[in-house]
Write a structure and sequence with these properties.
8 helices
């Protein structure tokens, strides 16, 4: 292969990578818009019943992340298999750090019987998984995908810089989403942003999307069981 052909191939690869990066950036921007708009419109403005709002939010997250993966060529199955054992171990550690934080809040009454089971499944697990997926797993994976195949990812210091950018994106997504609720438009927003550093760690360190959602769900389930009428977890709040 002559020199001109090599240069042409490199140029084509660079253009392809640049196009993929722009596509991920568009999806990331859309995630920020949707992450704020859904709680602001359906919870804060329309004041829908909490469980109905959760249904809309969960459906949005599922559809959004699925479309992102399909349009950008991300293999969900491959991502879930990626360092899965290490990811589960880190998930246990992160959950062990966050659950005591929830238990440290004031205990409140909660429903009993089937209503409690439903709350655990819906408000704890389903809503928790959706939150962890949109607020942490998606922005982290999107940032890493933007730099996939570039020289930056081939160096340790470059990978660390990308990881820092991914964490910042996750924290920004968490802040943006919570600002959709009126009661978080205050210093209160600092608490979920700080928590994001912990629940994002399993996904950030393994690039496996299941870590952050499972950790987040563990925190939400604890909130349902211990602090059902919480003014911090399980928004929107009265």
């Amino acid at each position: 292969m002559n020199t001109h052909a090599v240069e042409r191939e490199r140029t084509e690869i660079a253009i392809h990578l640049s196009a993929k990066a722009r596509l991920h950036l568009v999806w990331l921007a859309a995630g920020f818009v949707g992450g704020f708009a859904i709680p602001f419109l359906f919870a804060d403005t329309l004041d829908l019943p909490r469980d109905l709002y959760y249904g809309i939010y969960i459906a949005f997250v599922a559809a959004f992340v699925t479309l992102w993966a399909k349009t950008t060529g991300q293999s969900v199955a491959a991502m879930v298999r990626r360092r899965w054992l290490l990811c589960l171990g880190l998930t246990v550690v992160a959950s062990a750090l966050l659950v005591p934080v929830v238990l440290g809040k004031d205990a409140t009454t909660h429903p009993d019987g089937l209503e409690l089971v439903g709350a655990v499944l819906w408000r704890g697990i389903a809503y928790g998984l959706a939150d962890g997926l949109l607020l942490s797993a998606f922005p982290i994976l999107a940032i890493f995908a933007i730099f996939e195949g570039t020289r930056v990812r081939k160096r340790v210091i470059g990978t660390m810089a990308v990881g820092l950018a991914a964490l910042v994106a996750s924290m920004a997504m968490t802040a943006t989403y919570h600002l959709g609720y009126s009661d978080f438009r205050s210093e209160k927003v600092r608490q979920p942003v700080a928590g994001d550093v912990v629940w994002s760690a399993p996904t950030l360190l393994t690039l496996n999307p299941i870590g952050a959602p499972i950790t987040h769900a563990a925190m939400h389930v604890t909130a349902v069981l211990h602090s059902y009428e919480t003014d911090l977890f399980l928004p929107p709040h009265e």
